[in-house]
Amino acid sequence: MEKIINHGKKYLYIFARWIFLSTLVGVLCGLVGVCFRYALDFAHHTFDRHHELIFMLPVAGLFIVWIYRKLNMKRKDTNTILESLRSYDNIPIVMAPLIFISTFITHLYGGSSGKEGAALQMGGAIGSYLGRTLRLKKDDIKILIMCGMSSIFSTFFLTPLTASVFSIEVINVGTMYYGALLPCLISSIVAVSIAALCGLGGHSFNIINIPSFTLSNLIRVLLLAVIGTLVSVIFCLCMHYFHKGFKKLIPYSYNRILVGGILIVALTVLFGTYRYNGAGTDIIFEAVNGDVLPYDFILKLIFTVITLGAGYKGGEILPSFYIGATFGNMFGHLMGLDPSFAAALGLVTVFSAVVNCPITGIILSCEFFGAGGIVFFALCAIIGYTLSGYTSLYDSQKIMYNKLGLERNREEVNK
């Protein structure tokens, strides 16, 4: 009996300890996430009112390169966070304000990028710094990093469960660190509560019509998932090879971001629209409401690849939402599938494929679109994950097991 009591006390202590630590991370990262959302909302509204700011994008890019060089942070991005979670390397706290400022600048002057990548970097840096300050063990710091990632991520869409699972699933594909589930979820809930108290709302999409589960609709959905996965693979490969090729073509980072900014300005003037600048959340809503241009997903892909490949900051996840939703909308119009529902399916497919996170994709579909049509969403998420192979938005992401079998991925074994 005494052994049982001691065992219970031990786990109650551990439970209470993580309640405290995860709540602390949730409060800190929630406040930072709220400030970040207000800053980006200001940037978007300012750009919408003053589109002439686009012509300052090349100069703004020079400042981004300068500030990163000044603080000796030449190669610090989301890959840095993923690598640190496996190697236990410290994440410099200066990474948080840097990505905050540089993402704000990118959005203010019309660069095409998201914001979730910045959220992961800020949250990871804050979690790492807090863990070191409290002199925690390396494994505990690892959990705090994931708590920080999920906290700030959750403040954007107010989707705590999606953020929690994503922060764990994205690190090593095929394995999940279940010990981090409770701390990440608590941190996310705290952060979401702070965002709600500050008057920030989430994003919920109303699908116009969810079709019945028939063989005809099933075939259309499967075809959408397969082609959508191809789009996601193209997006990942373009991100990788453009960045690599652009760097080889223009080695000097100041010149590279200057040329990239000029290209974005030129393309914006050429197409005579600002649909592809900024995060594009409004276009995602338009796609789910059933009304976008059939080539939106192609141009958004091009704008995003140039922006991020040239060195501007932000994230790749929201652009993947945009690309997936607009592709799905176009597919729905062509194949006789409800465009609103097809846009939602496209979003889930492309997201699950580019980050290799099918479980997150399924949960995301529920928090975004409700549980109706969950079987269709699950099929798209799983097909997107399976058929995307070993492509990913993140070079440092590890795929531990073969996607079409149970054997260990040889590439990871060799590493």
SS strand fraction? under 5%
User: What is the residue-mean pLDDT, rounded to a whole number?
Assistant: 89
For the biggest β-sheet, the strand order reads: 1-2
* Largest β sheet strand count, sense and barrel closure: 2 strands, parallel
Q: What is the end-to-end distance?
A: 47 Å
Strand tally is: 2
Helicity, in percent? over 70%
In DSSP terms (H or I, runs of 4 or more residues), the helix count works out at 17
Label the overall shape: globular
Order of helices and strands: HHHHHHHEHHHHHHHHHEH
The radius of gyration is 21 Å
Q: Which consecutive residue ranges, at least 5 long each, have pLDDT under 50?
A: none
Which structural category do the helix and sheet elements fall into?
mainly alpha
What's the topology here?
Blueprint: H1 2-49, H2 57-70, H3 78-87, H4 95-108, H5 116-133, H6 138-157, H7 160-169, E1 172-173, H8 181-197, H9 215-249, H10 253-271, H11 281-288, H12 296-310, H13 317-335, H14 339-355, H15 358-369, H16 374-387, E2 398-399, H17 410-414
Parallel strand pairs: 1-2
Helix pairs in contact: 1-4, 1-5, 1-6, 1-8, 2-4, 2-10, 4-5, 5-6, 6-7, 6-8, 7-8, 7-15, 9-12, 9-13, 9-14, 9-16, 10-12, 11-13, 12-13, 13-14, 14-15, 14-16, 15-16
